[in-house]
Design brief:
- The strands form 2 sheets. Strands 1, 4, 5, 6 and 7 form a 5-stranded mixed β-sheet that branches. Strands 2-3 form a two-stranded antiparallel ribbon.
- The termini are far apart.
- It is of the alpha+beta class.
- 25% of the residues are buried.
- The chain has helices at residues 52-62, 116-148, 159-185; strands at residues 2-8, 24-25, 28-29, 41-47, 70-84, 87-106, 152-153.
- α2 packs antiparallel against α3 (159-185).
């Protein structure tokens, strides 16, 4: 028997990985949209500006939900169960975890006075910060699977409720990890997510 449950942390955005070309500039190359990895997909948006102030303004107006980048993870679980030794036990659990990161790419213009090197340092720190948020979803996947594989009940009719009672506190903890991480790092500022 199989039961499918899907829980979303936040709205999942377009999952296509539209990579922007790296822009040539006289002082180097602007970091492009990060490539899709096994743990994250990136949906990039363009920001414009030739100065620090202009870039900050563009990030503020075009950034998702008022942030420079935004991570959405979605964790789902599938489980199988059946009678084992007089009890109904979870016999197998499959987890799926997706993470979508909305991320800025600077569409430079001729005459830009802001340092490409400083921009690239900021987006490197920003990617690392958002990857940590993706890790909260991966943590939830690992922890729930461990606990779910230990679940047994006297009746198979109550196994779904028992799993949900394991899921809910772990899900809440994963969300709290993200909030605490942002509070501790000031949304990444203490990790270098700032334009100098």
């Amino acid at each position: 028997k199989i039961k499918i449950t899907s829980i979303k942390n936040k709205k999942i955005f377009d999952t296509s990985n539209k990579a922007f070309k790296i822009t040539e500039a006289s002082t180097g190359k602007v970091a492009g949209c990060p490539k899709r990895t096994s743990t994250a997909r990136y949906k990039c948006y363009k920001v414009r500006g030739s100065t620090r102030t202009g870039l900050i303004g563009s990030l503020g107006s075009k950034g998702p939900n008022g942030y420079w980048a935004y991570t959405n993870w979605n964790v789902s679980y599938y489980y199988w169960y059946g009678p084992v030794g007089g009890l109904c036990k979870v016999t197998k659990v499959k987890m799926t975890n997706t993470c979508i990161v909305q991320f800025p790419v600077w569409a430079t213009s001729k005459g830009a006075t802001y340092s490409i090197s400083n921009w690239n340092k900021m987006v490197t720190a920003l990617k690392r910060h958002e990857d940590t948020h993706c890790g909260h979803g991966r943590w939830l996947s690992r922890e729930f699977k461990k606990q779910a594989l230990k679940v047994s009940t006297s009746s198979c009719g109550t196994i779904g409720a028992k799993l949900k009672s394991k899921w809910n506190p772990l899900y809440s903890k994963a969300k709290k990890k993200g909030l605490a991480f942002d509070k501790r790092t000031n949304h990444g500022v203490s990790e270098g997510v700032k334009l100098r």
